[in-house]
């Protein structure tokens, strides 16, 4: 995407000449006839570079420079000044301007100045990004937990991060697998290179091969230019394969070969391209069961699971819940909002089928919908007040006069299916039972999907 440049000058003809020259070089150009209009455009569009005249009625170029630097210190500003007023331009440079150009300007000089300014901006942004990443390298500030289960995760990450080993992260949806993958990347020797993520379940099957391996022009209808795949885009860095259990069976041998041979063949290509990438995969599926079912290659599994790390579900680390609540409250602007002990008991007793992601969403909702500065039980969603057990970990509340075990089991199976849109594989995973066991229970209790009942 071409860089956008904002030109501010009250001289209409000069403004048009600048616009023409910059557009001819392929830049996007915004123009303004005065400083106030220019700063409104700046706030709205956040251009990559500002070129402004120094002497303008109303808001001067010096004021424009100060306003730009106050809002975005990394945005370079080139000032325009009349020939013979170089001292004024030098003053502007002391105030933060990147450089100056005199009227009438030389076109080649303008092109070079703009190119250098944009390159400097890119370097500045990359430097800031690296500093931010380096500041996070040695901690787990975005992964919160004091439980034994999470301490084991932290210990495993510390051991594996600065190696080249392939890692397989397992755990239910919402347990924070991508956060752990990013932490491994940031603590590795590849931290300065890209971290590229791809969700194998979110991309249509017919596009996934091109997304992973890239394609050459003409490889298929619509391939009008060469495309770099995610494996190559992560060159020198880390590729995060999320939901790897959903990778189509026909693509698994190609991924296995790419990982083993350290080279990739784009779709429609004839030449292999060298690959320098570390792979971290993640799944909430039972891959060993998938292997038994013939849905996942055993050799690929062992290639990915060199170092397996399991993330425990939130219900197995309830001591982390109060810590996570405070962390998410601060993250969403509720640092000074208190949670009553009763609320924390309810939150600790809730089963959290959506794990940490569901807890964060709940905390954000409580902060928005609260009735005061202390969040009480009445602020909780109805499902938590009805289903949570104060101070305990019960998932259901049985009536005093008893309940049929078979009826309870039937209701649990139906609820699991409903929560997962009647997808049997996901429902079985939710109940932590094999799929054939779920199908047996459905047949036993005559449970049929809604669409089949309508036939």
Automatic annotation (TrEMBL):
Question: Which residues in this protein are found as 4-aspartylphosphate?
Answer: 53
Q: Which is a Pfam family this sequence falls into?
A: Response_reg
Keyword list (alphabetical) reads:
ATP-binding, Nucleotide-binding, Phosphoprotein, Transcription, Transcription regulation
User: Signal sequence span per UniProt?
Assistant: none
Sigma-54 factor interaction domain: residues covered? 143-368
Family matches, as SUPFAM superfamilies: CheY-like, Homeodomain-like, P-loop containing nucleoside triphosphate hydrolases
Checking PROSITE patterns in the record gives:
RESPONSE_REGULATORY, SIGMA54_INTERACT_1, SIGMA54_INTERACT_3, SIGMA54_INTERACT_4
Q: Does the keyword NADP apply?
A: no
Residue ranges of domain Response regulatory in the record: 4-118
For this entry, the protein name equals Sigma-54 dependent transcriptional regulator
According to its UniProt entry, this protein's organism is: Geomobilimonas luticola
């Amino acid at each position: 995407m071409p860089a956008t440049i904002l030109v501010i000058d009250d001289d209409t003809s000069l403004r048009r000449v600048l616009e023409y020259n910059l557009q001819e070089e392929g830049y996007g150009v915004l123009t303004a006839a005065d400083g106030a209009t220019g700063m409104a455009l700046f706030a709205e569009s956040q251009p990559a570079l500002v070129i402004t005249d120094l002497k303008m009625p109303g808001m001067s170029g010096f004021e424009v420079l100060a306003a730009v630097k106050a809002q975005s210190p990394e945005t370079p500003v080139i000032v325009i000044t009349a020939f013979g007023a170089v001292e004024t331009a030098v003053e502007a440079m002391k105030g933060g301007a990147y450089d100056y150009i005199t009227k009438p300007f030389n076109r080649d000089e303008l092109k070079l100045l703009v190119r250098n300014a944009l390159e400097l901006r890119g370097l500045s942004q990359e430097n800031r990004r690296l500093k931010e990443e380096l500041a996070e390298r040695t901690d787990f500030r975005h992964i919160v937990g004091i439980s034994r289960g999470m301490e084991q995760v932290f210990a495993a990450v510390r051991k594996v991060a600065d190696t080249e080993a392939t890692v397989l992260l397992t755990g239910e949806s919402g347990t924070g697998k991508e956060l752990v993958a990013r932490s491994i990347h940031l603590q590795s020797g590849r931290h300065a290179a890209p971290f590229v993520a791809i969700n194998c379940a979110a991309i249509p099957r017919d596009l996934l091969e091109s997304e992973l391996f890239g394609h050459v022009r003409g490889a298929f209808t619509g391939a009008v230019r060469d495309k770099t795949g995610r494996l190559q885009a992560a060159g020198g860095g880390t590729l995060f394969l999320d939901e790897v259990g959903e990778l189509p069976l026909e693509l698994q041998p190609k991924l296995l070969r790419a990982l083993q041979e350290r080279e990739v063949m784009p779709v429609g290509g004839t030449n292999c391209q060298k690959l320098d990438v570390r792979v971290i995969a993640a799944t909430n599926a039972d891959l060993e069961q998938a292997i038994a079912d013939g849905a996942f290659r055993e050799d690929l599994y062992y290639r990915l699971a060199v170092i397996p790390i399991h993330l425990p579900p939130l219900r197995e680390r309830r001591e982390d819940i109060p810590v996570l609540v405070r962390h998410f409250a601060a993250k969403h602007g509720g640092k000074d909002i208190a949670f009553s002990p009763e609320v924390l008991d309810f939150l600790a007793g809730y089963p959290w089928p959506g794990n940490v992601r569901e807890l964060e969403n709940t905390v954000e909702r409580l902060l928005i919908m609260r009735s005061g500065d202390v969040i009480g039980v009445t602020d909780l969603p109805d499902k938590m007040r009805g289903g949570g057990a104060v101070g305990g970990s019960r998932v259901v509340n049985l009536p005093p006069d008893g309940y049929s075990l078979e009826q309870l089991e039937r209701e649990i199976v139906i609820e699991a299916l409903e929560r997962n849109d009647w997808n049997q594989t996901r429902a079985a995973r939710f109940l932590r039972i094999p799929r054939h066991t779920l199908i047996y229970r459905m047949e036993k209790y005559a449970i049929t999907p809604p669409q089949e009942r309508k036939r």
